[in-house]
Amino acid sequence: MKPPPFTYFRPDTLQEAIAILARTENAKVLAGGQSLMAMLNLRYVFPDALVDINNLFDIAGIEIRPDRVRIGAMTRQRRIEIDDALFEVTPIFREALKLVGHRQTRNRGTIGGSLCHLDPASELPTLALLLDAEIEATGPHGPRRIPVGEFITGFMMPGIAADEIVTAIEFAPWSATHGHAFQEFARRHGDFAVASAAVLVERNATGIIGRAAIAIGGIGSVPQRHAAGEASLIGTDGGAEAINLALESCSELEALGDFHGSAEYRLSVARAMLRKSLSIALARASDRATR
């Protein structure tokens, strides 16, 4: 199929791109295009204009400081996947990105594009939620920081204005001894997940969990933090009772059925993925604490 007609812009600066968005109605931003081009060809979206931001090289790159990690919105997913410095501080990115599409799509896809597309089964929005990230969006009045919980406003609805462009994601890294895991089930490799579970945990010197984060993707209209599951782990040694409580409390999450399966089926898959992620993350946290 062919896309509907549109006016094409390819600005060379961020300020030029924002100015085009400000004066153009019904415009879409084109980053990697791995989702948008398919939606255009299938006539799911009908923009009057496309603003191609692939010349905005100044909003790409990875910056790692002791207390903060910043990833530019135009950073390609493959670049994030293979970055060894990022792997040292936040290894869950590499694990999750290996599940995103295929290498060819990761070569073009960007972190900003994935965040703005905001598919509930997509790995990168789930990671942003897990990490309590802030999303930087820049518009005519300059940049602003949006907590990820406010950025995720609904199904494929990022919380930015029509004349704003996401320019970066920032988050605080966890301790060097934290454990991590990202597990998902998809019918074929590269497909969007039926359900996914991302976990971060930190143990203290006696093996007690002092900090935990759980995010579940794919089962509802948006990726979700599993606060009840986190609470069931903190203050425990991560034994069977705590894990079972985390799994049981998944029933508090939003779960929607579709042609891939019922809400009950998706929830059962989420529990299975969470059990696996918890097992891996807890083991990694124990291993790192003894090094």
CATH architecture of the largest domain: 2-Layer Sandwich
Q: In percent, how much strand structure appears in the residues?
A: 15-25%
Briefly, what CATH class of the largest domain?
Answer: Alpha Beta
Whole-angstrom Rg: 19 Å
Terminal Cα span = 56 Å
| Shape by Cα distribution | globular
What is the number of independent domains?
A: 3
Number of helices: 12
Which strand order does the major sheet show? Answer: 4-5-10-6-7
CATH superfamily of the largest domain: CO dehydrogenase flavoprotein, C-terminal domain
E-strand count? 14
Quick check: average pLDDT?
A: 95
Helix content: 25-40%
Poorly predicted segments: none
What is the chain-wise order of helices and strands?
EHEHEEEHHHHHHEEHEEEEEEEHHH
Named CATH topology of the largest domain? Enolase-like, domain 1
| Structure class | alpha+beta
Which sheet architecture does the biggest sheet show? 5 strands, antiparallel
